[in-house]
Each structure stands twice: as structure tokens, then as C-alpha cells.
Design a protein that fits this description.
Distance between the termini of chain A: 27 Å
Order of helices and strands of chain A: HHEEHH
Structural class of chain B: mainly alpha
Largest interface: A-B, 78 and 92 residues
Strand content of chain B: under 5%
Shape of chain B: globular
Strand order of the largest sheet of chain A: 1-2
Largest sheet of chain B: none
Structural class of chain A: mainly alpha
Number of domains of chain B: 2
Shape of chain A: elongated
Number of strands of chain B: 0
Largest sheet of chain A: 2 strands, antiparallel
Oligomer: heterodimer
Number of helices of chain A: 4
Radius of gyration of chain B: 19 Å
Chain lengths: 102, 212
């Protein structure tokens, strides 16, 4: 991870955060624009979740990872606390690997 | 509760970052400087999957664009003094904004914004340090299934937003496109392709316009 990537993300993010207060009172965002931005963020994060659940780069990640993720997702859907989701997902994948499932 | 979840989020982010072969200081410095979890996960996840850093940074900034309307909404809570403004701006995260906007009284809202923002900053950083050190101590994080915890945490993060039907439809379409493209396109691009799921919003809107 190049340091420059972190610095650019940090500066860009700070600039985005600063823009709101600087523009306040002069510009009004439409409800629709706000919504598109929020949904975009949700889509990007969900797509990252789904693709990293199944692939490492362009290669299939093996069965242990998607199996663990599925267990975690099912628990999250049942409103389990995040601790439980994390431990169950990791535990399932680790258990399967210990049994020899890649 | 909120802060406990933040520590845990931080631990998994720190451990996963180290699991991708990054040195311990990378996730920690990133948290101090960027302090926007979604974009940090995106940057580490995409670069770890082999995407170009430039594309990963672009995706991270895109995720953080939502802070623009946030800033408009909470600008009067941050205060006018330069120091307050510089620090308060950095504390603008989903949680601090959500708590402040949920509070009617302006003075109480200001207190929530700052308390939650500062709390999240320390909770997240603490978690990331613990996670990164633990990840390094463990060595092969795969054996402990940390790579499976990462997508699960991301999913838990977006789950509340999926209650909205249109968001859910857009996310499903986007994810299907991203998955279909993963073996075809270079790493990192499929996640951006998922944004095509936004067309769902446009279609739903025109449907409403036709039959209100």
C-alpha cells in the first residue's frame, strides 16, 4: 500500500467533509442527490462484501470463506450482535480449513 | 454499545489489513488520517485483491462523497472557531451525524455530535491497533478465518440500509453485475461496475411518475 494512496484518500476525504460547512447556507442539496450518494456508498460496500466473499482477486477463494461469510450473514439477518457475526464467520471458515476444506 | 461495536469493527479491519500483508502502521495511520471506515475497508480490500491504488482511492472517495450533504446538515453544530472547525470536520462520521440529527435540541445535538465523534475516533483507533498487533502475532490470519469475517462485517454494516426496497433492488443488481464481471475485468473494476445498479432508482422513479 503506497503511503501516497493513504494521503490522497485522507486529504480528499477531509476536503469533502469541509465542503459542507463552507457551503452551508448558500447551497441546498436536493433530497434526490443525497439519496443517490447514500445508495452509491451502500452499493460499493455491498459489492466489495460479495466479491471478496467469493474471490481473491480473479480467483475463486475456495469454499471455506464463502461458507463462513454465509453463516455470518445469516446471523446478522437474525440481528445477532456484531461480535457474534464476526466470531461465527471466522470460526466457521477456520473450522472448515482445519478439517481440510480449502 | 456503539463504541464496543466500533472497537470490534476496528479489530477486524486491523487484522484483515495485516492479513493482506500490510505492515502494522498502515491501518493505524490510515485510521488517524482518513477516519472513514467504509472507504478504508474499500482501499485495503481492493488493493489487497490486486486493484490499482489509484482506482481504489477513487472508489474510497466516492464512498465518502456522502459526507458532503452531512457537512451541510451539521455545519452549525461544529461551531465557528477555527480550531473547533478543523477538529469537528474530521469527526464527521455516519454515527456522529446520525446521533446529532436524531436530537431535537440544538445544544444537546451539539453535545451528541462531539461526544459520539470523539468516542468513535478513540474506539476505532484502539480497535485497529489491537487488531493489527493481533494479526501480526497470529501470522497466518487465514487459518483463523479472518478473511471470512471481513465480508461479514461489511454486510452487517450495510444491512440497515437494505430495509429500503429500492436500495435493496439497486444493491442486488449491482452485486450481481460485480460478481459476473469478477473473472473478466481487472480487480477493483467490478466493484465500480456495481454502481450501474443505480439505474434501479431511475427506473423506479419513472414508474412512479407514470402511475402515481
Amino acid at each position: 500500500m503506497p503511503l501516497i494512496a493513504i494521503v490522497i484518500l485522507a486529504l480528499g476525504t477531509y476536503a469533502i467533509r469541509l465542503t459542507g460547512p463552507l457551503l452551508a447556507g448558500r447551497v441546498e442539496f436536493s433530497a434526490r442527490a443525497k439519496r443517490v450518494l447514500t445508495v452509491s456508498a451502500t452499493i460499493l460496500l455491498a459489492a466489495l462484501a460479495v466479491t471478496t466473499a467469493v474471490f481473491t482477486g480473479e480467483q475463486f477463494a475456495g469454499w471455506a470463506r464463502p461458507a463462513g461469510v454465509t453463516v455470518g450473514v445469516l446471523l446478522a439477518l437474525r440481528r445477532a450482535p456484531l461480535v457474534v457475526v464476526v466470531l461465527a464467520a471466522a470460526g466457521t471458515a477456520a473450522g472448515l480449513r482445519a478439517l481440510g476444506v480449502a | 454499545m456503539l463504541l464496543a461495536a466500533a472497537v470490534l469493527d476496528g479489530i477486524s479491519f486491523g487484522a484483515v489489513a495485516v492479513g493482506y500483508g500490510l505492515p502494522v502502521w498502515v491501518p493505524v495511520v490510515m485510521t488517524l488520517l482518513v477516519f472513514a471506515g467504509g472507504s478504508q475497508l474499500l482501499l485495503v480490500g481492493l488493493v489487497g485483491a490486486g486493484a490499482s491504488p489509484a482506482m481504489a482511492v477513487a472508489a474510497g472517495l466516492l464512498v465518502n462523497l456522502r459526507h458532503l450533504p452531512f457537512g451541510l446538515a451539521v455545519s452549525d453544530l461544529i461551531g465557528k472557531r477555527l480550531a473547533a472547525r478543523l477538529v469537528g470536520t474530521h469527526l464527521m462520521v455516519d454515527e456522529s451525524v446520525a446521533f446529532a440529527l436524531a436530537t431535537e435540541d440544538r445544544n444537546k445535538a451539539r453535545a451528541s455530535y462531539w461526544t459520539v465523534g470523539v468516542g468513535m475516533f478513540f474506539a476505532w483507533t484502539l480497535g485497529v491497533v489491537i487488531g493489527a498487533l493481533a494479526g501480526r502475532a497470529v501470522g497466518d490470519v487465514r487459518a483463523f478465518g479472518v478473511d471470512a469475517a471481513f465480508p461479514a462485517v461489511l454486510f452487517a454494516l450495510v444491512l440497515p440500509a437494505l430495509k429500503d426496497r429500492n436500495t435493496l433492488a439497486a444493491v442486488l443488481l449491482g452485486c450481481a453485475l460485480a460478481l459476473a464481471m469478477t473473472t473478466v475485468l481487472p480487480a477493483g473494476v467490478p466493484v465500480l461496475v456495481a454502481l450501474l445498479g443505480l439505474v434501479v432508482l431511475a427506473v423506479r422513479r419513472s414508474e412512479r411518475a407514470v402511475c402515481p
